[in-house]
User: Fold this.
Amino acid sequence: MPTETLYHERRFSAGIFIILTVVFLIMAGFLIAQLALGPLGSKPAPTWVLALMTGLFSLPMINFAFLTLTLTTEGVTVGYGVIRTTLRWDQINAVGRDTEDGFYGWGIRFGKYRGLWVWVYNTIGGERVAFVTGVRKPRGLLVTTADPERVVALARERLQA
Assistant:
C-alpha cells in the first residue's frame, strides 16, 4: 500500500535564519573586503579559508530556514533540512497539545514534556504538539505547528486505526 500524506506543513524559522544570515553576511563581507582591498590585518587569513568559512556558514543558514512537519499513513516526520526525526504510528502512545510555557526560541534540542525527555523542534511563535512514545528514548517529539487542532485530530485518528 503506498504511503499517503495526511498533513504537510513548512514553517519559516525567522529567528535562527536571521542570526545565521548575519553571521554569513559578516563572513562574506570579510571575504569581499579581502578580495577587493587585499589582505586584512597584520596576520591575514588566506582567501581560501575565508571562502571556505563563508561556504560553511551558508550551510546551516539554508538547512535551518524551514521546519517541516509531515503526517503520513506510516507515521510522523519532523525536521529542519536534512536533520529529521521519524516516528511510526505504532511507536506513538499518545498525542496532545503542549500547554506548558517552557520552550522559547527556535531550533532542535532536548527538553522535558510532562517529566519525559523529548526532542523539541521549535520555531518562534506558534503552538506545539507532543507525540509521546513508550520505551524509546527520547520519549517523543514536541513540534511547533500552525494548526495544532488539525494535527492532533489527524494523529489521534491514526492511533485509533
